[in-house]
Each structure stands twice: as C-alpha cells, then as structure tokens.
Amino acid sequence: MIIGIPKETQPSEKRVAIAPDNIAAFAKLGYEVVIENGAGEQANLANSAFVEAGARIADSASAVWGDSDLILKVTPPSMEESEMIKEGATLISFVYPARNEELLKKLGERKINLLAMDCVPRISRAQSMDALSSMANVAGYRAVVEASHVFGRFFTGQITAAGKVPPAKVLIIGAGVAGLAAIGAARNMGAIVRAFDTRPAVKDEVKSLGASFLELDFEEDGAGSGGYAKVMSKEFIEAEMKLFAEQAAEVDVIITTAMIPGKKSPILITEEMVKSMKQGSVVVDLAAEGGGNCELTEAGTAKVAHGVTIIGYTDFPSRLPTQSSKLFGNNLVKLVQLLGTADDFSINQDDEVVRGALVLDQGKISWPPPPVETSVAPAKKPETPEEEVAEEKSKNPLLSGGFLLGLLSVSLLALGWNGSSEFLDQITVFVLACFVGYMVVWNVTPALHTPLMSVTNAISGIILIGGMLFVSGANPWLAGVAIFVATINVAGGFLVTQRMLKMFRK
Predict the structure, then answer these.
(1) Distance CA 413, CA 86 (A)
(2) Mean pLDDT per 10-residue interval, the chain, length 506 residues
(3) Separation of alpha carbons 23 and 27, rounded Å
(4) Is 10 a catalytic residue?
(5) Fold for the domain defined by 137-313
(6) Residue 355 designated active-site
(7) 148 is catalytic
(8) Would residue 130 show up in a list of annotated catalytic residues for this protein?
(9) Domain spanning 2-119+320-365: CATH 3.40.50.720
(10) Fewest CB within 10 angstroms: 284, 288, 308, 350, which?
(11) DSSP string, 69-105
C-alpha cells in the first residue's frame, strides 16, 4: 500500500505533510512512501533526506495522486488535485468541511474516503492526533516573534549605562493552546504578560506560566464543547469590552486568539481601542482567517492604522515550516496507526476518533459526526474505608507502638540495672520522654503534618520532654539548651509543613 505526499500548492504554504523522521514509522506498518519532487524544500527538508529515510521520489504531482492509495496532505486539495486523486483512495488533510462544500462534492465523485485533521475530536485519547492544537502551538509562538519584529523596543526590561528600558506589556486574549504558547514565549522574552479568558478553569495554567490573569466579577463560565469557548451573554461581553478598552490604553502588544467553530470570530478590539493605543503598539490577530478579533484586521496582511501595526497573517504555522511539518507529521503517524497496517487498513467507524474525523465515506458525506463525549467519569474503586484498614493493622497487639516502647524500656532496664537510684531516675525520665514525645507529636494527622516531619518532630518531642524533666537536675543549662533546640525543630517542622500545604491550595 502506497502513501503519497504531494507538494503543497497553495500560495505561501511552505509546510509538507511529513518529515523524514516519520517515514520509519510508516515503513514499520508496511507502507511504501512516495513523495513529490521538491515537496519539502521550502521546509528545509531536502529530497536526499527523504530518500535516506526510505522514501521514493516521484517526478510529478500526477504520479503521486494517481498511484497512491493513501494521500497525506496539509491544506485542502485544489479542484485540479481533486481530479487527479485515485478513485477509492483515502485522503487525510485539513479540510474545513463547513466552508468547502464544492470541494466535498468534487471529491465525492471520486468515491474516496476523506478524513479531516481539523475534525479530529478533542478527547484525551486523540491528543497525539490533534493537529489543530499542534499548529496553534506554533502559531502562538510565532505571533510573539512577529510582534517583537515590528515593535520598536525590547520586550525585556534593561538598566544600562545609556538609560533604563522598561519591559513591554503584552495582553493575550484567549488562553487556549495558541494563547498559552504566546504567554510562554512573551514571558521568556521578558515581557510583562496579562491574559484574559472566559473560562476560569485556565487561570492556574496562565499563572503557572508567569502571567497575570484578568478576571471579571461575573458568575459565568465560557467553557464550551470540544475544548472551545462558547458565546457569552450580552452583559458579560459589555464587561469584557470595557476591560479591553482599559487595557488597550496601557499595554504595548495585544494578541487575540478568540475563535468560535462555525461562527465568525467575535470583534474584541474596536477601532476606538486601537486609537487609544500608544504609537508603535502592535495587534496580532490570530483569528484573522475567521474574520478577525480586531475591527481593522485585514486577513493575510499587516498594516498600520492610527500608528498601530495590525498583523492579520493567516499562515503563522507556515512561517515556521520545518517545525510545523515535523509536528503535523507526528499527528498523521498516530492517526494512520489507528487506521491499521498496510495489510489490514480500514476505516473503523466504531472508533470515535475515526468517526469524528471522517468527512467522506466512499464518496458519501458523513459529516458532521455524532457528538463525542469529551470526558468520562473515572471508574469508582471498591470502597475500603480507612477505618477498616486501620482496624486490620491494629489487630496484632505485638506491632503496636506502645508494646514496642514497653519492650524497649524493659530491655534497657535489664541491661543497665545496677541497683542505684540514679539509674532508675534516668531510665524513668527516658521512658516518660519517649512515651509523651511519641504520643504528642507522632499522632498528629499526616494531612496537617507530613510523615517526614512527624518522624523528626517525634524525636525532638522526646528530647523536649526529657529536657523538661531534667531541667531541675544536676545540669539545668544542658537541659535548657536541649529544650531550646528541640522547640526550634518542632516549630520549624510545622512551619515547613504549612508552606508545603499552601502549594496545593487555590
């Protein structure tokens, strides 16, 4: 069975569907890989690299399309390419079926199977095949690079002999995959980053990357299906627009990522907001392909309006073609593995991932798919109450702490007995110190005190009680020092534990 990799024909598209590193995985499944001559050149992947990896070079696009049983591609095929595809073959690429009805009709005439990488359901087991996320990751990073290219200052703050340079302030709207990638890149470049998202659940992710999370005083969650945000209420939109207006006048760079599947991208940055921005500021609109989040965005171009550069490129992943091709190729490998080896290749519609991505089934439209459950409650473990476990452990009296402590005391008494009252006083103090110290500190609930600290403080508790009993004896100064040191250890143990517990509190 032959896998064909044609050269991308869309203007400015520099990616290729797979990288040489992916060929070994296909060969292991029994596939022969044929790639069009020069398909990887713009991604800095030479023909020789593919040949060394085990692929065969085809001289023309028609040879790839006409001879291959499985076509792997990045962008949707053109009408001309649709006529070249082998009847009954399988095509996997980005398709965007909602806005390519004519293309689907054309491909349907060839009775092919069509799987859309943009339709892979966003569920846990499909994460390795989620090309939208992998490309969004690249786009978020590249957005920061493009912004820094046209911005007139450093992103990071500096204090030099020539003067002080303040750090750039960056606002990122939308904390999905692209937004989080942009946050990470901007923070790594030293900028002060603020982020906003309608989904409160992403707050911790934003803060973990070092950004500030902007919130509204609203009890409304923007989490929608499939990992996307949903359309918010009118009151919420008015409140967030007021927030964006305030931020626009203060920040230097705005990066927007808000897209809603099947709908036009919402306008979040108005012309009035752009006018309020400082001269030399930058707006990067990652939603330009869907109409844009900025009122002044022009898809595919960068322009200056009111002294602000507005970047509306729609090919951010293609601007990092080598990395994008490798990530996209990895996504394709995982999906092809799901479809089976060359000997048992099949479109298993019982598989929710395959069914979700399937757009054409032997030429018949099968999109949209039935809804996919995005989260499954974990199976409950058999209930074993902690009390029952504790009872089982305590059934053997020989293993109890009190018994072991008593046994130790009797042993020491037998070893050191010489009939003197001084030894009896010392052994009595030791036994009392061990018992009281053990009972006071060791039995603290582990949730309030880590097991490690419990052990060390149990020892300190023994020293503390012993010192208190000996403080009126022959060497009160030594006993006082013991009490002081043991107290520091006990107090410090609880302080450390409190700091550890704060790490797990929201």
Answers:
(1) 93
(2) 97 96 97 98 97 97 96 97 96 94 96 97 94 97 98 94 95 96 97 95 95 87 56 85 97 94 88 97 96 96 97 97 98 97 95 96 93 54 49 50 60 56 62 62 56 61 67 66 75 72 60
(3) 6
(4) no
(5) Rossmann fold (3.40.50)
(6) no
(7) no
(8) yes
(9) yes
(10) 350
(11) SEEE-SSPPPHHHHHHSPTT-EEEE---GGG-HHHHH
